[in-house]
Design brief:
Number of helices: 7
Shape: globular
Order of helices and strands: HHHHHHH
Distance between the termini: 26 Å
Structural class: mainly alpha
Helix content: over 70%
Radius of gyration: 17 Å
Largest sheet: none
């Protein structure tokens, strides 16, 4: 095993352990918290999947950013939440049910929203994109399963 493989495996293992520790303490009530509060869920989805990607596309249209920079900016803006976010939210004082519910809700929505947003953004930027929705599924399931 090379050093780069060891680092990759340790990163994947650490993400798995973080998500596992969250899931071990979570309840169904925590996971479904935002689905029972549609207004709160709508606000979070609007912030994550409308405002942030729109800002990233606007930056790409206004500033002379090279194509690889545009790709990185839009991909980051359209990517789902990192699995370590709930822990950071709870350390900052967020309600545990909200933090875990947000991770669950956004992860499920990301299965549809991420490929759609990336395709839409690249069409707006005048670039060709071939994006397989299944490409989102594997890393997403690895990070939340």
């Amino acid at each position: 095993m090379t050093a780069s493989n060891a680092i990759l495996y340790s990163v994947v293992l650490s993400i798995f352990l973080v998500v596992f520790s969250l899931g071990a303490r979570a309840t169904f009530d925590d996971a479904s918290f935002l689905f029972r509060r549609p207004w709160l869920l709508a606000r979070a989805v609007t912030a994550i999947y409308v405002i942030v990607p729109a800002f990233a596309v606007a930056v790409c249209l206004v500033f002379p950013i090279p194509p690889y920079g545009r790709f990185a900016l839009v991909a980051l803006a359209a990517s789902p939440l990192p699995p370590i976010l709930p822990r950071k939210e709870m350390l900052a004082g967020a309600d545990r049910r909200y933090a875990i519910g947000l991770l669950v809700a956004i992860s499920l929505i990301a299965l549809v929203a991420t490929p759609l947003l990336v395709t839409l953004a690249y069409e707006m930027l005048g670039a060709e994109v071939r994006f397989d929705a299944a490409a989102v599924l594997k890393p997403l399931l690895m990070s939340i399963a």
